[in-house]
Amino acid sequence: MVAYNMEIKNAGPILRDLLTAIDNFNIKEHVYVSSRISKGQSALPGSGASLSEFGITELPLPGIFNILGIRSLTLNSSQGLQALSRLNVITSTVEMEKHTLQLFKDSEVIKELQFLFRNCRVIAFDDWATLSEASVAWDGLLIDVIKPLGKTDQEYIFYLGDAMRKLSFEVDEALDLISAFSLHGKVMVALDENEAIKLWMILNGVQPGTAIAEQSFSDLKKKYFSIFRTMNIANLLIYSANDAILYSDDEQFVLSRRKVDHNIEIASDARQNFIAGYSLGLLMRLDIGHCIALGLIVFGSRGELQSGPERKNLCAYIQSWIQDLQSPEGVQLYQDN
Known about the structure:
The chain is of the alpha/beta class. The chain has helices at residues 11-24, 64-67, 81-85, 93-103, 107-117, 134-149, 168-180, 193-203, 217-230, 262-265, 270-283, 288-305, 311-326, 328-336, and strands at 7-9, 31-34, 57-60, 70-75, 120-127, 154-159, 185-192, 235-239, 243-248, 252-256. It is built from 14 helices and ten strands. Helix 1 crosses helix 12, helix 5 crosses helix 6 (134-149) and helix 6 (134-149) runs parallel beside helix 7 (168-180). The two termini are 25 Å apart.
């Protein structure tokens, strides 16, 4: 059994490491495929975080991945995308269930998906609670596409979303399904603070609308840890406006965040931008603390500057974050954790 042992991680050394890593990093032949990228062009200001600054090719996500509930992929090359992009897929809400059920009966589609996923490094999924057939799509993807490949080195990023929108048995099934992906790679589940509390309530039989007494930070961390123990996953990330908290078998830590404007925090592309930075960190072979910090940097920089993550912008954002940590308010925030 994993023991509860929370570490307070100093963001300063991580940020200074990232300054050097960002300045030196350039990688060829990798491809970032995202629903935020427009057809026929790389990501532009206003369309989401761009990674082309780092030598990474960017392409739009084929429509079939809307049915599969996938928001982005990180690939070793673009091989396999062309055939999937040519598929005439209807993705309206009305047609979604019908197409989900039909999708995994098409041997040619399965073949093309397997070819692509054999070449895939990171798979980031949409919020489960917002998709009517997410569990059906992900179960089909796991059984018919991923499992036959026999790979165990892929990275999976799941967002559960507001679990209160679903029935409790549906939530249990989703958690079991997400855990099943762990047999084929590393799974990270990310929740914001409100989503985590709602999930904890469902898992502990607390009825919706029940008033919850004000929680200390220590109480919250223990509740989050109980969520982690219910799942067979590598990493659970819980974030609030102030902190990012990571639970894993190897380590558990709190990383103080740089506060951003509320509109940036709740923006429609906020999670997409975090994933872009986190995926970049995985390509750079950084440890998970650095990957999370880089995700927060791309998210914060993108939100404030309304432009793609150019090196100069990311470095300026990191320098500003370091200065915040050195201010009396920043020191106090760090000590309060």
